[in-house]
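Example record used in the benchmark description.
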Amino acid sequence: MKPLVIIVAGFLFSFLFFTGTSCQKNTDCKATVRCVDSSGIAHSGAKVLLYATIKTANGGTVVADVKADGTTDDAGEVKFTFKLPAIYDIKATGTVGTKTISGTGIIKLEEGKGSEKTITLK
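Model output (structure tokens):
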């Protein structure tokens, strides 16, 4: 009788252990924005803003509270991580000497995936 109790207890422990652990699905939405100048050379130090524009009931638009900003690194890239999928407008600005250059774009973020967008500053 004792071996049967040990076998049943072992089976129950194994069942609870293996069914009690769950796989955590990666749901992060990662965005990489790369800024280049008109000749395709990476532009470091550009300020990048991601923001969501939402249509209002009367046909206008407003900028939502969901925003992110960053500055490009030496490779001309800035990376963002969000918890939920979304579509963001991108506005990037940089300087060349005393001249301000800028560019815009749109990036779509999907659950568990990474998205990349290159913005040409002019």
